């Protein structure tokens, strides 16, 4: 039986990965089990658990805090990824590294999604540190899958961000009389359950390389918020604003839609539209029937 270690097992994506794997297959690793920035910690855990696959979901991914603390960002997202890659290679394991749409800068222009053969050009420290992580993975572990995804929402909520956008909007809508949401950043919202399912299909293959994995379609954060409120029946006025009006300090791409091109070439791109995935999430959380 294939043994799969999940680093970040209590995280948003990690939780769904662990749930989908059979209990005998999975080695769930929390932050108290492993510190990716410490190669001795990584080495120790994988000497103990000789797994066939390592899925590294660990990250420092609060975009504003990465900008304020680049050392921590590069330590966790780049050196951490390097440490895991070195050890994965040593034990002969396949490695999955989770990356982001923020490796792109949005310079391709509106309506042209990025595929895996486009050249990254990150705008901020978070994106740069994740791209550095990707490069270490490519350099140090032969059997790798680099998975770029975006706008994650999952039942556990992002630990590193204190929840996800869906929960934030529902909470704010109950507290405030109106909401202002950014309308000039376009991306593809993605349900961690669907992402986890696809990752688990890929690890059974030898289709190594970079994969973009998102739910189908795209929207702005404003459009995403509107859909969440419509589906949950919460009535509140939502005002579209620009990133400048929101006074976001850190630059973000205004268009970072990912094209699941590699999956499509393999006939494996069957992810559902984000609107359907959102409905499923809201049902599972019992916001709707
Ligand atoms: N969330 C998004 O919208 C989004 C979008 C695109 C890409 N991504 C990428 O997707 C991945 C998963 O995101 P997520 O939302 O599932 O994140 P998450 O909920 O914050 O989970 C990350 C997990 O990694 C653990 N971790 C953090 N630092 C670690 C370290 N130094 N050593 C060992 N474990 C550590 C965390 O444990 P503790 O909380 O206990 O520290 C947490 O369990 C990340 O790589 C992220 O960059 C996320």
Account of the protein in words:
By secondary structure, the protein is an alpha/beta fold. The protein has a domain at 4-162 and 190-216 and 257-272: Rossmann fold (3-Layer(aba) Sandwich), CATH 3.40.50.720. It has ten helices and twelve strands. It has helices at residues 12-20, 39-48, 63-68, 70-91, 125-140, 165-175, 192-202, 221-232, 261-265, 274-284, and strands at residues 4-7, 26-29, 53-56, 94-100, 144-149, 152-153, 178-182, 186-187, 190-191, 209-212, 219-220, 237-241. The strands form four sheets. It has a six-stranded parallel beta sheet, sandwiched between helices. Strand 4, helix 5 and strand 5 form a beta-alpha-beta unit. Helix 4 runs parallel beside helix 5 (125-140) and helix 8 (221-232) packs across helix 10 (274-284). The longest helix is centred in the N-terminal third of the chain and has 22 residues, at 70-91. The N and C termini lie far apart (38 Å). Residues 7-8, 10-14, 31, 34-37, 57-59, 61, 76, 80, 98, 100, 149-152, 158-160 line the site of NADP nicotinamide-adenine-dinucleotide phosphate (NAP).
Side-by-side strand order of the widest sheet: 2-1-3-4-5-10
Distance between the termini: 38 Å
Helix content: 25-40%
CATH architecture of the domain at 4-162 and 190-216 and 257-272: 3-Layer(aba) Sandwich
Number of helices: 10
Task: Please name the fourth-level CATH homologous superfamily of the domain at 4-162 and 190-216 and 257-272.
Answer: NAD(P)-binding Rossmann-like Domain
Briefly note the structural class of the backbone.
Answer: alpha/beta
Overall shape: it is: globular
Number of strands: 12
Name of the CATH class of the domain at 4-162 and 190-216 and 257-272 = Alpha Beta
Low-confidence stretches: none
Task: Give the names of the bound compounds.
Answer: NADP nicotinamide-adenine-dinucleotide phosphate
- N to C succession of SSEs: EHEHEHHEHEEHEEEHEEHEHH
Report on the biggest sheet. 6 strands, parallel
The fold-level CATH name of the domain at 4-162 and 190-216 and 257-272 is: Rossmann fold
> C-alpha Rg, in Å?
18 Å
Query: Approximately what portion of the residues adopt beta-strand conformation?
Result: 15-25%
Mean of residue pLDDT? Answer: 96
């Amino acid at each position: 039986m294939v043994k799969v270690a999940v680093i970040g097992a209590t995280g948003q994506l990690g939780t769904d990965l662990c749930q989908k794997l059979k209990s005998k297959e999975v080695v769930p690793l929390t932050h108290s089990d492993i510190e990716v920035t410490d190669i001795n910690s990584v080495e120790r855990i994988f000497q103990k658990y000789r797994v066939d696959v390592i899925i590294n979901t660990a990250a420092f991914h609060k975009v504003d805090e990465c900008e304020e603390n680049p050392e921590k960002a590069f330590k966790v997202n780049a050196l951490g990824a390097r440490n895991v890659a070195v050890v994965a290679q040593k034990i002969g394991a396949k490695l999955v590294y989770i990356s982001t749409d923020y490796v792109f800068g949005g310079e391709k222009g509106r309506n042209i999604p990025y595929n895996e053969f486009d050249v990254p050009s990150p705008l901020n420290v978070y994106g740069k540190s994740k791209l550095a992580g990707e490069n270490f993975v490519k350099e140090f572990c032969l059997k790798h899958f680099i998975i770029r995804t975006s706008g994650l929402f999952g039942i556990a909520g992002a630990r590193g961000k204190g929840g996800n956008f869906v929960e934030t909007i529902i909470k704010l809508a109950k507290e405030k009389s109106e909401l202002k949401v950014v309308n000039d950043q376009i991306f593809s919202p993605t349900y961690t359950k669907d992402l986890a399912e696809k990752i688990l299909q890929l690890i059974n293959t030898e289709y190594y390389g970079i994969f973009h994995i998102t739910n189908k379609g795209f929207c702005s954060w404003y459009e995403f918020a509107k859909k969440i409120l419509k589906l949950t029946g919460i009535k509140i006025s939502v005002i579209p604003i620009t990133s400048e009006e929101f006074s976001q300090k850190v630059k973000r791409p205004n268009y970072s839609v990912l094209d699941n091109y590699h999956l499509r070439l393999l006939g494996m791109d069957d992810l559902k539209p984000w609107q359907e995935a959102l409905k499923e999430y809201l049902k599972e959380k019992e916001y709707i029937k």
